[in-house]
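Quarterly update, task 2.4: S-adenosylmethionine-bound model.
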Amino acid sequence: MGQVVVRRRADGATELRVNGVFVMDDVETSSERRLAEHVLAAGAREVLVGGLGLGYTARALLDGGATRVVVAELHAEVARAVEAGAGAGPIADPRLEVVVADIAEVVQAQPAGSLDAICLDVDNGPDFLVHAGNEAIYGSDSIARCTAALRPGGVLAVWSMADSPQLRRALAEHLDDVEAIAVPVPLQGRDETYWILSGVAATA
Ligand SMILES: C[S@@+](CC[C@H](N)C(=O)[O-])C[C@H]1O[C@@H](n2cnc3c(N)ncnc32)[C@H](O)[C@@H]1O
């Protein structure tokens, strides 16, 4: 477990740090919301999300018509901060359940074929880990477990700071229609690109 700080900066932004490492702030959240929009566009209504962060993916899923959103968040401090109003919070919605747990355990606990989508945004992507323990989440075995929890046609969508050929290959071992979507984001006066890597569970 790391040391978690959710704090209001001098510029008014809310920032999440773990072990002194910047995770995210609420200045530019379009890619977090885009993760939700990607699975909603595929028709997803029952969605598992890992993790909560400042709540923008969860909020966008609910605003976009999801009927059930389960969010696995490793740190209780993060869940408490969003509940108290940080970031996109507070999100008081009967369709939302926030579980303080590792996403890997929550995925494993899902009944087979029970979800329309899984949105993974627990780290900066496979090549820029904040939590070393998250490496396995981007691996083939983990993607196989996510795939098993999806309904036919369900979507696994992964937020990443950079495109990752290795992650695309792991997705393609288990899922169809693998794509890497570039999401341009303006960050402190420069143009940055984040990525959503996704695949679709086989329908036949
Ligand atoms: C980049 S933030 C997520 C941002 C989120 N999509 C949003 O809209 O604000 C990553 C979150 O995942 C959490 N996390 C990290 N590893 C995790 C794990 N293995 N299981 C569940 N949550 C995890 C972190 O504590 C952090 O809150």
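Highlight for this quarter: Residues 18, 23-24, 32, 50-57, 72-75, 78, 102-103, 121-123, 131, 134 surround S-adenosylmethionine (CB under 6 Å).
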